[in-house]
């Protein structure tokens, strides 16, 4: 089962924000605003995955795939009402992301209906990026066409590997041929394509990983996310590793695979823009994910979804039945919330920007009002120098002029392997 949610403070039944957050909303009018739509269904649960998703078997009474689109739409209507009641400034959505679970387990017409309702309620910016995740065996030419007609611009396919044995260990239901067909269908419909890959599956050799990277590149996607496998507590895979059925992951193997990722993707024209994300150009970076990493605002709709607006974070009840019950009684589906404290804001700014190829702007960081309020230490030229000397951040980006204070902390390849350690060296005392 998926992991549990943090507790936080209770969310009031009408979903309204604390007064200080309401007062901050007008200052966020120009900040990008995104919508995340969670579709919590999968045909099979992959043994490594702890996302909040349910097979038909483990869904239980009180929720169904059939009624889910209407329930989800009722949260969108609720969200509109919450924002209106606080007189929040009008903000059209710059990105929409349908994730899961497997969004494409729902009929594409239903995804289209949800998207149309989101457009009616919030409006879309011109050139809005509208993505849906999809499992490769759920996409046909017709599905892709309906999604594109509805306004989706991008399909993110969970390819994971090109090696049948590895796909088997991951409990995937698709085969490599499904991926190729899905990419072709997406292309024919005019959708951008992103592929998700996972490295470090137990039993995967370095040559297996090379093969997955090469197959992915040969499909000419616009974007590739290459994640190192994380063994999540409570998953079937974690249990198999504990019992010795599968080998544990190995950090040296993961590092070798990251180096190979950089080599193969780099040679094929994919540049990293976040530690695990690569694209063929700035225009094909994931705008939605970038918004998460640069402290923008987003509403996360669906069971277990997290939202962030103006420093307020909240998260919805996890089970689809509890979620449906809350909304049918006109109550917020919010389970808990927290206002980010200054220390958290500083650390998040540092940690998230450092993972981006655009890096951490030192002057901007040193002047964060939250850093001053917590009397945290600024980043000094001496710290930057020592990180450059250790080969962890780029010398060129750190000091475009003689004064490091004009520079940015941008991770080198070695730095990306040790990103957490670099964060600790930069973090305020
Ligand atoms: C919600 S899933 C993607 C959509 C779709 N359900 C699928 O799997 O094809 C998002 C992505 O997270 C990644 N992911 C999930 N669990 C992971 C784990 N334990 N370690 C690393 N990556 C993981 C996978 O690459 C997956 O494609
Ligand atoms: S299909 Fe995707 S969301 Fe569903 S269990 Fe597998 S990885 Fe998780």
Structure description:
GO terms for molecular function: coproporphyrinogen dehydrogenase activity. It is found in: Cytoplasm. Keywords: 4Fe-4S, Chaperone, Cytoplasm, Heme, Iron, Iron-sulfur, Metal-binding, Oxidoreductase, S-adenosyl-L-methionine. Pfam families: Radical_SAM (PF04055). It is built from 19 helices and 14 strands. It is α/β, with parallel strands linked by helices. It has two domains: 19-293, TIM Barrel; 342-426, Orthogonal Bundle (Arc Repressor Mutant, subunit A), CATH 1.10.10. The chain has a nine-stranded mixed sheet with strand order 7-8-6-5-4-3-2-1-9, with helices on both faces. Strand 2 (93-100), helix 4 (108-122) and strand 3 form a beta-alpha-beta unit. Helix 3 (68-85) packs across helix 12 (320-328) and helix 5 packs across helix 7. The chain starts with 18 loop residues before the first helix and ends with a helix. The structure holds S-adenosylmethionine and iron/sulfur cluster. Residues 48-49, 51, 99-100, 102, 133, 135, 158, 160, 196, 198, 227, 229-230, 232 line the site of S-adenosylmethionine.
CATH domain class of the largest domain = Alpha Beta
- Provide mean pLDDT, rounded: 95
Rounded to an integer in angstroms, the radius of gyration calculated over CA atoms is 22 Å
Class inferred from helices and paired strands: alpha/beta
Separation of the first and last Cα atoms: 38 Å
Provide the β-strand percentage band. Answer: 15-25%
Helix content: 40-55%
InterPro entries: Aldolase_TIM, Coproporphyrinogen-III_oxidase, Elp3/MiaA/NifB-like_rSAM, HemW-like, rSAM, rSAM_sf
Protein name: Heme chaperone HemW
Keywords: 4Fe-4S, Chaperone, Cytoplasm, Heme, Iron, Iron-sulfur, Metal-binding, Oxidoreductase, S-adenosyl-L-methionine
GO molecular function: coproporphyrinogen dehydrogenase activity
């Amino acid at each position: 089962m998926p992991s549990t949610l943090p507790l936080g403070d209770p969310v009031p039944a009408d979903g309204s924000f604390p007064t200080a957050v309401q007062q901050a909303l007008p200052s966020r009018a120009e900040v990008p605003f995104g919508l995340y739509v969670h579709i919590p269904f999968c045909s099979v649960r992959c043994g490594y995955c702890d996302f909040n998703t349910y097979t038909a078997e483990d869904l239980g009474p009180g929720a169904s795939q059939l009624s889910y689109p209407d329930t989800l739409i009722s949260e969108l209507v609720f969200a509109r009402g919450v924002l209106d009641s606080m007189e929040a400034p009008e903000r059209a959505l710059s990105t929409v992301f349908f994730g899961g679970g497997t969004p494409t387990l729902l009929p594409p017409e239903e995804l289209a209906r949800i998207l149309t309702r989101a457009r009616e309620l919030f409006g879309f910016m011109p050139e809005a990026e509208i993505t849906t995740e999809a499992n490769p065996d759920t996409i046909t030419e017709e599905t892709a066409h309906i999604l594109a007609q509805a306004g989706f611009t991008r399909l993110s396919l969970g390819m994971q590997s090109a090696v049948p044995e590895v796909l088997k260990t991951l409990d995937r239901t698709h085969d490599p041929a499904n991926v190729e067909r899905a990419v072709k269908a997406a292309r024919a419909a005019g959708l951008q394509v992103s592929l998700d890959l996972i490295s470090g599956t137990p039993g995967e050799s370095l040559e297996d990983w090379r093969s997955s990277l090469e197959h992915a590149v040969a499909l000419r996607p616009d974007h590739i996310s290459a994640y190192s496998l994380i063994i999540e507590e409570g998953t079937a895979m974690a249990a198999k590793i504990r019992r010795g059925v599968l080998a544990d992951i190995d950090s040296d193997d993961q590092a070798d695979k990251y180096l190979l990722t950089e080599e193969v993707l780099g040679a094929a024209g994919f540049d990293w823009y976040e530690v695990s994300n690569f694209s063929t150009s700035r225009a094909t970076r994931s705008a939605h994910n970038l918004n998460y990493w640069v402290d923008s605002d987003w509403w996360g709709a669906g069971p277990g979804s997290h939202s962030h607006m103006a420093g307020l974070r909240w998260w919805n009840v996890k089970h689809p039945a509890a979620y449906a019950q809350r909304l049918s009684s006109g109550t917020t589906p919010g389970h808990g919330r927290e206002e980010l404290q200054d220390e958290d804001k500083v650390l998040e700014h540092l940690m998230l920007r450092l993972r981006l190829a655009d890096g951490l702007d030192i002057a901007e960081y040193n002047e964060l009002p939250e850093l001053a309020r917590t009397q945290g230490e600024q980043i000094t030229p001496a710290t930057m120098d020592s990180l450059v000397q250790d080969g962890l951040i780029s010398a060129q980006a750190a000091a475009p002029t003689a004064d490091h204070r004009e520079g940015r902390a941008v991770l080198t390849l070695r730095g990306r392997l040790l990103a957490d350690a670099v964060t600790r060296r930069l973090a305020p005392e």
